[in-house]
Amino acid sequence: MADLRKLGDTPITIESKTYPEVCLRMDGTGVPTTMAGGGTVNCNFRAADQEKFKLRDHGNDTFSIESIAFPGIYLRMVAVDVNSQTTTGGVVNCQLNADGGGHETFKFRVQADGSYSIESLAFPNVFLHLVGTGVTAHTAQGGGKVDCRFNANGGAEATFAVSMASQSLDFSNAQLQSQTMWCWAASSVNIARFYNPNTTQTQCAQANAQFSQDKCCNAADAGGAACNRGSWPTDALTRMRHLKEELFRALTPVEVAAELAKSQPVGVDTHWRNGGGHIVVIRGRWESGGTEWLRIHDPWDGFVDVTFDSFVNNYTAAGGVWSRSYRTVRQA
After folding, report:
1. Where in the chain are the domains?
2. Annotation: CATH topology of 4-164
3. Given Cys at both, which of 3, 23, 311, 320 links 270, Cβ 3.0 to 4.6 Å?
4. In terms of DSSP H, where are the helices of the chain?
């Protein structure tokens, strides 16, 4: 798992180590502005929106846990009666606009296996506790029980895997490249089409602009040597005001997740082993069994899923190496 302090707006899941695939769930419907908090905190099988969160860093490995589905709603724990005699109980619910509040701030205690126990800052030595018995399918209302437990650091039902949640951008509007050398144009236009499905930008218009031509949109000329040429996407993205930054390196998984969390696809130049290259777009990512995966839109092959490590060093049979990254933005 990545450094929790660097996640920013990247969505995470909090999965029980005792009950695999059972995740913390927060329903902030109707949460009042009163001190008592409200809503429902329980668990669910696998993660949808109500099982995804953002960590708000307050330093010293302390964080508030904000709902993705209910922005401004935070996990809350009150454990006045939880001590060495009672062991379990307390209240775990949620609170509105409570980032950094006393009952809404937690210390993440790392365990030997990389998991975490989540301790209340207001109630030292009291930890989040989840019972997922019988939670074997995802339901609208969730199930199981979430409360807190005294002296449970590293204990059963009180340890959690904190992982970056799966992310996916809608690239259903994307095109394949219309000429053999137009991967740069297709990927650039696909980024524009993601940001604005009604854009009038086209691959051939970008070729005209890039190569100072006026005939690349003619079917008879588009495949000719004057138009069907390779290029970087830098100029095309700049013309369409979608280039935020060009980097001459691969991004890390956390950096990719941060861009996707802002709904910003990432352009990539993958350099072939024997020369030449190919421009594709990262449109999503997920983690499975400790392996990081990427969702790619490749203007030659279409939608491709590939492990992060393979994409960095050995993309497709041509052995592509991730050499440049293009951070994008809705309007530069």
Report:
1. 4-164, 167-328
2. Trefoil (Acidic Fibroblast Growth Factor, subunit A) (2.80.10)
3. 320
4. 183-195, 203-211, 219-222, 234-239, 253-261, 308-313
The closest of 93, 107, 110, 117 to 16, measured between CA atoms, is 117
Query: Which residue, among 138, 168, 115, has the nearest Cα to 286 in the 3D structure?
Result: 168
Q: What is the pTM of this model?
A: 0.85
pLDDT at 87: 63
What the block records as the tokens of 58 is 């307050």
Residue 275 has pLDDT above 80, yes or no: yes
Residues counted in the chain? 332
- Cα 130-136-139 angle, rounded to 5 deg: 90
Sign of torsion over alpha carbons 86, 88, 91, 94 = positive
Dihedral, CA of residue 212, residue 213, residue 214 and residue 219, to nearest 10: -150
Interatomic CA distance for residues 84 and 66, integer angstroms: 29
pLDDT value at position 88?
Answer: 67
